[in-house]
Amino acid sequence: MYTLINKIWSATIITVLFLVNANSQTNWNVTVSNFSFTPSSLTINQGDVVTWNNTLGTHNVNGMTATFPNNPASFGNTVQSSPWEYSFTFDIAGEYSYQCNPHSGSMQGTITVNTVTSITDNANNDDIRIYPMPVRNYLFIEFSDKKAKTYSGIQLFNMNGQIVFSQAIESNDNLRINIGHLEPSVYFYRLQNTNGYIDTGKILKK
């Protein structure tokens, strides 16, 4: 086990050399109108949200893998007349295609989701206590009084930048997260603040 931990931390040091500041989750808007998606092409980051807003006509968003087998995940809504909004969080990196079913010949769009590769370690933040370290099954997160009830969610990423755990936060008094199913490795956490601030760092799972 000691050798495994040494290898993991060695890999972490190499990885962190290439990591820079993380950007907060971004919300992107696409207007559905005049038989088009505007913009029709987006490049976003893993974990970002895209919201389609139908302002005119009868349309839908179809990014289902049944229609586009190469999409990493399915997304979409039913055909409806305006006005409507539909949002989807892109947690899996890759290339996505989508269309409006009634107007598939003219209404098509693409979304490129980049892998998250930028996390800064804020482990010395006195406002947050994360333990035990290393962790085997349950990870505990405690917040100071001035940080209490200001976080909306937590995500864990593996060393490839893929999201392996995501959970909404309803109460910040004391979080207890079961990560016993994850493989022993280094993971990076990202705590999303309701005001848009991000706290990040790394944990060691044994």
From TrEMBL:
Signal peptide extent: 1-22
Transmembrane regions: none
Cell inner membrane keyword on record: no
Domain Blue (type 1) copper, chain residue ranges per copy: 30-114
Entries under NCBIfam families matching the protein: Por_Secre_tail (TIGR04183)
PANTHER family with a match to the protein in the record: BLL1555 PROTEIN
Protein name: T9SS type A sorting domain-containing protein
Biological source species: Carboxylicivirga marina
